Amino acid sequence: MTTMPGFAGETLGRFVAESRWEDIDTALRHQAKRALLNFIGTAIGGARHPSVDRVAAVLAPFSGPASLTLFGRGERLDAMAAAVVNCIAGNHLDYDDTHLKTVIHPTATVAPPVLALAEERGLPGAAALHAFILGVEVACRLGNAVSPGHYARGNHITATCGVFGAAAACGKLLGLSAAEIWSALGIAASQSSGVVENLAGEAKNVGVGNAARNGILAALLAQRGYSAEPAAIDGKLGWARARGDEFRAEEITGGLGERWELASISYKPYPCGIVFHAVIDACLDLRRRMELAPDAIAAITVRGDQLLLDRGNRAVRTERDARISIHHSAAVALLRGRAGVREFEAAAVADPATAALRRKVRAELDAAIPAGGAAVTVETSDGRREAVRVDHARGSAERPLSDRDLEAKFRDNAALAGALARADAQIAALWAIEEAPSLGPLLRAFGADAG
Amino acid sequence: MTTMPGFAGETLGRFVAESRWEDIDTALRHQAKRALLNFIGTAIGGARHPSVDRVAAVLAPFSGPASLTLFGRGERLDAMAAAVVNCIAGNHLDYDDTHLKTVIHPTATVAPPVLALAEERGLPGAAALHAFILGVEVACRLGNAVSPGHYARGNHITATCGVFGAAAACGKLLGLSAAEIWSALGIAASQSSGVVENLAGEAKNVGVGNAARNGILAALLAQRGYSAEPAAIDGKLGWARARGDEFRAEEITGGLGERWELASISYKPYPCGIVFHAVIDACLDLRRRMELAPDAIAAITVRGDQLLLDRGNRAVRTERDARISIHHSAAVALLRGRAGVREFEAAAVADPATAALRRKVRAELDAAIPAGGAAVTVETSDGRREAVRVDHARGSAERPLSDRDLEAKFRDNAALAGALARADAQIAALWAIEEAPSLGPLLRAFGADAG
Question: Which of A136, A159, A271, B142 is the most exposed place for a label (fewest CB within 10 A)?
């Protein structure tokens, strides 16, 4: 398509309204299915966390009669409340996907409202996939247009940009016109919120969850003719500048409809900070190679760039510390041969054998190792010594997770939820989502109460 | 009380939790009743506007079973949805109150969630008044701390600060501890939204309405132990700086508990921009004094400062134009002898006699007239000529509306809603709200379906 002059909301509204499913190629459709497989699995794995329980309990009395699926949970709520709970379940551990250029977790705010609306209305899988792809595009392009200043100043970009993606996607799913989606995006501008300062606490969830919900609200209001101002996003007193940022319009228009942001999102193999993934890869490799018994390990040296050391060289007291610790990441990988959700939970943090191994880890700066890489050397008490260097971790742009990797991650998450028996059928249903005539029956199989 | 060192949320949380009703003096309690009388009347008058209808229709399917009052409307919704609808009904015409120092409309976001929660739980009127007073204090002090940069950059301060006031007030009403209210304020930081660019459109309502709703959400989550970061408001990556602004902590601590922001809010006698109020006052005075027949008027000259001319010297095509027009304000006051809601509606804008009179108005700069003032000269076709200068308009800090004025405004609004017969009883109930043992029965009398 050609790019339009005028306002950002106008350009994006027209792009979303005019996009046709037949213009979305097979590879991009497949990326969308991968994103849903990854996100829904992560949500199932995270669904019973107390932070999710509390939000669900608070919202239940404020939910209408519609009875929609909460991934991995037994109760059902209306579309707005389901969007909040599913969003938080999949995002609260930061184990979901990442648009590396902006650090947006795009699926968290876009998929839950789209799937809830599609389930409520019995819409086809292809319509939901299409809306989802467009919503991710809108969120990430707006993120590109205000990065890096917007996030660096304290705006939690997953939430602040996510609400636009959710609004665009819901608008597309409801069949809104270009002008109506433009209005929905303008309404989203008045709902954009979230601060980085809160990232360490549960309050983060509220900003992200509201972004998912408020996309539905924006689209439903726009459908009824609710108006917004043309320059709500990029005007003199609009969204971008209210956050103190410049807005680079070329990030909206450049290659719109040709280059897709969804194609570059990455998936985490481990539920910890991305910079620790290379450390874990190296340790898993050494464990296999050296056939290590834990008490045979005398010393572990992890080398990496300044960012790795800045982020990860720390005392470990809590789950959150563990997810951003070089020492804990290396210790669990060497000790347990895996680094899944359980390996970063409180029990693993407190485990004496893990703590003992953490104490044997030393972190060292090595400027020769590229960002995102790490080198690990293990010495055993009987004098063996081996080293592995990983420049590109699993899940990075250079080594994306395969479909099989994503299926294995889904099964891990299902096992955490005690629902492994249903995982293969759920995985098959998601790979076939494009052919589903209605998402109602398909999605109902993802609640904890489904047969 | 003494002020606390530490974080803004900590200081405000402790202040709100420790405040005792017996420490609130009679004058301040009376101010709170005036604010509620003004706001609820405005909400009744604005309740049937299509912008309110649409929001209520969109939210109805997403409302839980609780059945709470919508001022001036027939249907009932749960507390969160009622807070949104009542907030928008009272605020969408900007006829509600104003904290002049920040331009926050404080009652719109604070009163609706407090009243809805109090109605839902059958709480006493005094508890709701107390929570309301504290919520207004929190919203306006945070506004003071980030003004004028926050608003000047495009953050719609009524919404962005209102959510903190709503959270604090709901937290107080629920009896939360200081630490819990601190958390509620931190959660509010992740929900603060609203852009000035949208002020001319309906999208404005969504930002303001969400602020009211999300105060309830913040307080209920905090009650269940949901955490936020200590510096969510004033930290390096917290709310104030994410909006690009400095935060003046002394605006939070200075005279806290001694000087009250509620004492300085003002009420509008006319539903148009405050700078036009002096024009209307002068025209109403001239009409009485000269016993003017409309077709006897040959020329009208309005003189004022640069702000008045910048804002109001414009062509009038829409209701919104009319509410910020020197010409329309003068014309309706001279022609109809009043300037209420009807005088700024579409029918009045299109009325030929009003349009003819608008054309006779000339606006002139007069630097000698103080901000907020105006001088009007009327010349008649038979050669009479009189001038009136108003330095302080009705409703300004120097000439606050009396209790009787507020009652008359309430009746005007009730008449617009076709509910004048119930107005006197409603006014009496609001003046007696402090003694009400439960707000359930009291508030139910404010719906359109009540007897």
Answer: A271
Q: What's the rounded Cα separation, in Å, for the pair A131 and A203?
A: 28
pLDDT one digit per residue (tens) for chain A, 451 residues: 334 468 999 999 999 999 999 999 999 999 999 999 999 999 999 999 999 999 999 999 999 998 999 999 999 999 999 999 999 999 998 899 999 999 999 999 999 999 999 999 999 999 999 999 999 999 999 999 999 999 999 999 999 999 999 999 999 999 999 999 999 999 999 999 999 999 888 999 999 999 999 999 999 999 999 999 999 999 999 999 999 888 999 999 999 999 999 999 999 999 998 889 999 999 999 999 998 887 899 999 999 998 888 888 878 998 888 998 999 999 999 999 999 999 999 999 999 999 999 999 999 999 999 988 999 999 999 999 999 999 999 999 999 999 999 999 999 999 999 999 999 999 999 999 999 999 999 999 999 965 4
The enclosing H or E element of A106 equals: helix A106-121
Tell me how far apart the alpha carbons of residues A97 and A269 are, in angstroms, rounded to a whole number. Answer: 10
Q: Pairing state of beta strands B297-304 and B374-380?
A: antiparallel
A52: closest CA among A104, A78, A91?
Answer: A91
Token pair, residue A105, equals: 């977790």
**Which of A66, A203, A210 has the CB atom closest to B227's CB atom?**
A203
Chain B residues closer than 8 Å to A51 by CB: 226
Distance from the Cα of A311 to chain B's closest Cα (Å) equals 17
Distance from C-alpha of A93 to C-alpha of A86, rounded to nearest angstrom: 13
Q: Can you give the pTM of this predicted structure? A: 0.95
Answer whether A154's CB lies under 8 Å from A197's CB.
Answer: yes
Strands A297-304 and A374-380: antiparallel
CA distance B256 to B141: 9
Q: Which residues of A213-235 are buried (b: 16+ CB within 10 A; e: fewer)?
A: bbbbbbbbbbbeebbbbbbbbbb
* CA B337/CA B343 separation, integer angstroms: 10
**Cα B222 from Cα B167, distance rounded (Å):** 10
- Give CA–CA dist B413/B271, Å, rounded: 11
User: B106: closest CA among B262, B280, B253, B303?
Assistant: B262
Q: Chain B window 111-170: which residues touch A at a Cβ cutoff of 8 Å?
A: 153-156, 159
Q: How far is CA B53 from the centre of its chain?
A: 20
A376 in Cβ contact with A302 (< 8 Å)? yes
Give the closest-approach CA distance of A80 to chain B in angstroms.
Answer: 7
Tell me if chain A has a CB within 8 Å of the CB of B217: yes
B339 in reach of chain A (CB within 8 A) = no
Does A57 reach chain B within 8 Å, measured CB to CB?
Answer: yes
Q: Chain B: residue nearest A151 by CA?
A: B242
* Domains of chain B and CATH, by start: 8-269+409-444 (1.10.4100.10), 274-390 (3.30.1330.120)
Q: Closest to B198 (Cβ–Cβ): which among A62, A81, A189? A: A189
Rg (CA), chain B: 22
Q: ipTM score of the complex?
A: 0.94
Rounded CA separation B90/B83 (Å): 11
Element (H, E) at A303: strand A297-304
Q: Which residues have a Cβ under 8 Å from the Cβ of A30 and sit 6 or more positions away?
A: none
